[in-house]
Structures are given as C-alpha cells and as structure tokens.
Amino acid sequence: MIKPLPAAIGMALLAGMTGAAWAQDAQEKKDDKAVDLDQVIVTGTRTATAIDKIPGAITLVSREEVQRTLSLTEDATAVLARTVPGYAESSQAMSNTGETLRGRIALRLFDGIPQGSPLREGNRNGTFTDMGVVGRIEVINGPSASEGIGAAGGIINYISKVPTVEGHETEVISRYSTQFGDDSAGWKLGVNHAYKGDDFDALLSASYIDRGISYDGNGRRIGMNTSGSTSDSEARNLFLKAGYNFGESGAQRLQASYSRFKIEGKANYHQVEGCRYDPVDCPVPTTNTSERGAIAGSLAEFNDFTQFAVNYSNGDLFGGTLVADYYWADQAMRYLPENGDDKQLVKVGPDFDESQRIYDQSEITSKKQGLRTSWTRGDVFGVEGLQLRAGVDLVKDEAAQRLALTDRLWVPPMKYTSTAPYAQLTWDIGPVTLSGGLRREDGELKVDSYTTTAYRNSVFVQGGGLKYAENMKNLGAIWRVTDELSVFASYGEGFGLPNIGIPLRNINVPGQSVDRIADLQAIIVDNREYGFNWRGDRGALGMSYYDSRSEFGTSLAIDPRSNDFILSRAPTRIKGFEANGEWRFSDAWKATALYSRIRGTTEYYPGSGLIKKMGVLDINPDKIGASVTWNFVPEANLTLGATKLLDRDLRATHTRASDGEVFRNEEHTQGYVLFDLVVNYDTGRYGKLALGIENLFDKQYILSWSQLPGWQNYWSGRGRMISLTHSIKF
C-alpha cells in the first residue's frame, strides 16, 4: 500500500544499510512506545522517526506493493513507475535510461549503499538485486543533502527484508511467465530462509531467474536494448545478512551483510534496426526487432554487483544513539556491441573503408567504500523536544570505462574522495516540528592523463584534479493542525557530480587539461516545497508543489552526428505538482490514485534566460495512476491497476538578437494507458498463488523516451505477459 505521508527532505544523512532492521528491533524493545513501521522512515534519519514530524514529501512503497508488482514483472523499477508520482516510465530493460525522479537523476541505494557511480552514470543502477529480497522502498522526492554526492535528484533506498517470526521460517517462491510467443517463457526459483531469536537473527536469500525474449502488442519481437536488455537473460542472486544484539537490554547491535547479483545476456538474439517514418525512405515505420544469432566475437552484456557492509549501533551511548556503517562495493556493467562511428579504430571520414567497420562493447567498472556515522540525542541543552543528530561521513569512489573488445580506454580512471561532517537539529513544540541542519561536502576529484578515441581526434588530455567544497543547508517546518491533517514547508539543497565521464570522453580539441574543464563543476540543486497530508480512518491524501533550481545544472541531448548522449551544462529550473491518495470504501474495496505534472526549463545559450523547455530525456510527461482492490473472499483478492502517460508537444523558436541565429526546440511524444491485473489466492497449507497479467489489453505503444531519434533506440513497449507465482512458507 502506498503511504502518501510527510517525510524527510534534507535530513541529516541516509539510513544505515541496516537501519530498517535496527529500527524495528529498537522499537520492539520499547514496549508501549513502539512505533508502527508503516509510519516511520529511516532513510535520511538513521533512527526510526515518525513521518508526521518530518517536513517534505516521500513515498513509502510497502512489501505488499512490491509483491504485487513482482506478480506482474521482475523489472526492478516497475514498482516505482506505478507508485511514485514523479518517477518516469520504466525502461523495461537492464538500462534505466530516461528514468528520472522529478526530472533529475536520483541516487539509488540498496540498504543505504550507492549502486553505480556518479563519476560515470551508466544508467544501469536500477537493476542490482532480486526484488524478492526487498522488504520496502523509501523514496525521498527532490534534492537532499542527506547523502552528499549523487543525491541532487533525490534518494531511492531499497531496504532488504528482516526476519519477523520467532524461530526458523523458510519461503520458497516459484514463478512462470509467458507471452505465448516463441521462446518468450521465463521462470524463477527463489528461497528465503529467516531466523529470529532473542539476540540473533539472520536472513539467507538465493534466487535464479531465466527470461525469454519479449514481444510487443503486435506480436513482434522487441529489439535488444543497446544499453542492455533483461529479455533473453539469466540472473543469479545471493544475499546474506546476520545480526546480534548484546549489551544491557540489547542496546547494542552488530550486523553484517553480503550481496552478490549478476544478470547476464544469453546471446541468443541480436538487434535488427527498424526505421522511423520518412515519406521516402520509410513510409511504413517499424520498430527495432530481434533475430536469432549473435555478432561474431561479441561478449555477453551484464550487470555484476557485489557489496559487503558492517553496521554497529548503540542505543545508549552518552545519552544518545550511535549508528556506524562501513561498506565496500565492486560493480561492473558491460553493454551490447555497437558499430557506430565513435567505436571505430580510426576516424570515419570520406576515405573510410566500410569493410573495416568493427563492433565494440563498452564496459564500466566502479569501486567504492565508505564509512557513515551518526549520533542522535534528544532533549539536548536541557530543552524538551530538541533533538540533535551529528556525524561525519567518508567516501572513496573510483570508476573508469573502456571498449572491451579492443581493450581501449574510453573514460580514464577517476577517483573521488570526500569528508562530510553534518549536524541537524529538530525541535518539537507541541503540534509544530521545526528542523534545520548543515552538511559540509569537502571532496576531491583526481583523473589520470589519457588520450581520447579516434572519433574525438585522438587528443591527449592532461590529467589533474578538482576540489569541491560546498555547505548545504536545509530548513523545514510541519504543523499538525489536527490528528488527521498536517501542512509543511521545506527548503533543501543537494550535491551531485555531472556524469563526469561524458564530458571527459567527448574532448576533441588538443591542449586540454582536466582541471580547466568547466563542465566538471558540481551540481548544486535547491528545492522549495509546500504541501499538506491528510490521513483519516478510511483514506489518505497528500499533495505538494515543488520548485527545484540549479544555477549550473545538467540536461541531456542527442548528438545528431553520433546519435550518442551529450551533456549540457546550463541553469535549470523544474517545477511540479503531485498528488497521491487512497480510499477504503469498505473492508472489501480500496482505491488508490496518483498524479504528477512536471515542467522544466533551461537555456538555449548562455544569457538566453530559462526559456527552452526540457524534453522527455529529462522531464517525464504528465502521469495518472489508479488501482482498485477487491477482497472478494477472505482468502483472495483482486487488484486492477492503470497507468496513463499523457501526450506532450514542445515546439518553440528563438532568435538571438546579437546575430540573428535561430534556435529551434521541437519534440512530440504520444501518451498511452496500460492496465494490469493481479489475483491472489491463499490456499492455506499449500501456499499462496498469484496470477498477474501485465498490459492486460495487449496495448501496442512506443516507450516515451524512445519516441525521440537516437542511436538504434526505436523500441516498442512490452505486450501482454501472463505470470503465475507460487510461494509457500514452512
């Protein structure tokens, strides 16, 4: 169930990787002071904090909502597209290209650990684990200083399950899906074993997923995504977590976790490019499709994520609570082979021999480690209701990108280190909660010397470094007008790096050095937000308006020559309105609804003013979502859901007064509506059955961001898929 309630904007740091488990254990030990976990948030606070005391907007995606989406698809981001108002449509691929949050790139976390690297955003960090191990998702909407690097667009924290039943409990999940097309069948087998004792608890999860090829609503195979498809792939996941409570009254806890996930293409198919409408060359447009076979010499695409973390918490240290997390992560992402001009060994020109054209494959690697600390104490300075949270965070992030088949450097090795102390005060004054804090981001980027590829003229770039020093503040207030209604206002700042690998690999002029490249400057985003939340006995409603600004922001465009992404650095302003609610008509009937409207502007050129409308690569079209759940018998229920993206037409012309140059901005996207159906039945001793039908009416449509010309990116969305899931606990 979606929780449209107030939440943290700019609170001091994200939850520790085991924050949810620690919070649950801590609350259970407080007897009559226990807090319902559906009403608390740990992302951004690290301690269980009642969300009606935190200004801002968040979406809490419950285990039930995660499970409902899993009954339809194994796509890791599909649940966000269905439940988070400001989240863009799911790419239905290994890549999450175009999947923005309120028009900006969000920081994705798994148990508080960053997935992917802001040094080289590869749009693959949305597929990093088996969703069957996720207990809930906490989404901080809008920029937040809480994590520091990478959180200028908000935070999406996937939190792993925690043992809830005393003793041993084993769950076995099996799933079969099909589109009734040749080789479209897929299956999953997963096992979760949990143990919970007085002082010790553990969770072991393992799964294997085999996916077939995908078909669109016309029964035609969908082309293999050039950034990586989940179609025709297999995924393996292993997750281990164990914790021990000790000390007086179990106030201290030590916990460790290990996660290993790999999704890899099976190389049974290769993409065949379609064509967009052209009255002469393509009077009948056709989307990309797939044919059996593989490109000679190519390697399988994959996401390979490994992470390890240790958490220590002490609920009674100098009158407060200490939480400390150490993490280490190693990640690699390989992409499909491409034969574009930018992948060739020599520069493509009039004399280029087409018989020498090669395929090559990009591969991004990243390593990171960090230490996060937080100490929280209430009634500080002898003031009732005044709480202090303070700590310091250390981060080390490394990333590079190469062309794997020819072993060429594409993006040089980059290293970023950061020390970030912070402090946050929260003051409860009767029905009013005031909050404010400051975080100091003190980072340094170092880049090795390198030579660009032939496409960029093989120029030498002198290595060097940049220092980043920013003070990020946040302020907020929430007034609980009644037990059911609250209103809030907040101001928060976020810090991010601008996908540094793209401007580095695109340098084509000799004599450049890393420390003189303006595009490497940090992204500082400030967000103003106002809203209200109402929660009654039978329903809930939350609405908010936000205004997000960056004096030196980023927006994506497509290079008309290479058809690859280029990064534009210019001021940006994004404004939006969103609403999220639910209503229970009776014990048997419940309805939910959401709405999102986002508008963004940037410059045509320096000094033009914010008059250029941002397109679908950054700003999602208006979205409407709804669902109805019917509990028709005690053992069974049915949920019918719908998501609609609206049409959008951008067309503008601007003439620069100084020289008469004309700038044009035109983009047209066609919306669509998709329905899905889930039926659950609990047999009792024989387990639970779930029938899921994704794209119920087999709608034929083109993904929104794929409606723009780009490198082989003309893809249909997935047609009807039917899945049957069985789970049993013992």
pLDDT averaged over residues:
88
Beta strands, count: 38
User: Treating each run of at least 4 consecutive H or I residues as one helix, how many helices?
Assistant: 4
Distance between the termini: 25 Å
Proportion of strand residues: over 45%
Largest sheet: 22 strands, antiparallel, barrel
Shape call: globular
Radius of gyration, Cα only, in angstroms? 25 Å
Helix percent band: under 10%
**Helix/strand/pairing category:** mainly beta
- Stretches where pLDDT falls below 50 for ≥5 residues? 1-35
Protein traits:
globular, disordered N terminus, mainly beta, 730 residues
Explain what you see.
With 730 residues, the chain is mainly beta. The protein is 4% helix and 51% strand. It is built from four helices and 38 strands. It is globular and about 80 Å long. Residues 1-35 have low confidence and may be disordered.
